[in-house]
Design goal:
alpha+beta, Nuclear Transport Factor 2, Chain: A, six-stranded mixed β-sheet, Steroid delta-isomerase-like uncharacterized protein, SnoaL-like, isomerase activity
Length: 161
């Protein structure tokens, strides 16, 4: 049986992670797109309501990110790669100001990770995002502090607002 997995190295993933962070911190959609396969599968249901398929549909997501967080910056904390160098994860801290619509000058600082699930021809073809949007919204005053409430109790309290 032939192994059809892409041949990648840790050096490739290291370089990709460097270019990834630089592209995001540039706030330039085209720099980010240069790293993505045309038919990218983009799963960031923390921010977006559904999985996105393809760069064309991803543009609206990117526009919304830059609009919501025009001064956001990502700082790498650590990176991890699978032993076979087919997948990677970049743990980051993100900082930025509230969206203009919030009417506040509050700032946020939270953690998250970019998970690179698959590559094809040197481009990212499957992405998964995970980060603390609840902490961000609390810091920005958009939702009340969680306090000692557990996950479902907290969510239910927000629904009663």
């Amino acid at each position: 049986m032939t192994d059809l997995r892409p041949v990648q190295t840790t050096a490739f993933l290291q370089d990709f992670a460097d270019r990834w962070l630089a592209a995001w911190n540039s706030h330039d959609t085209e720099q980010v797109f240069a790293l993505l396969a045309d038919d990218i599968t983009w799963d960031d249901r923390v921010f977006w309501p559904e999985v996105i398929h393809g760069r064309g549909d991803l543009r609206a997501y990117m526009d919304k990110i830059w609009q919501a967080m025009p001064d956001v910056e990502w700082t790498e904390i650590e990176r991890f790669f699978s032993p076979d160098s087919t997948r990677g994860l970049v743990l980051f801290e993100q900082t930025g100001g509230a969206p203009a619509a919030f009417g506040t000058d509050r700032r946020f600082r939270s953690h998250g990770c970019d998970i690179f699930l698959a590559f094809r021809d040197g481009k990212l073809s499957h992405y998964l995002g995970a980060y603390d949007i609840v902490g961000m919204l609390e810091q920005l005053g958009a939702i009340p502090p969680r306090g000692s409430r557990t996950g479902s109790g907290y969510v239910m309290s927000l629904a009663k607002r």
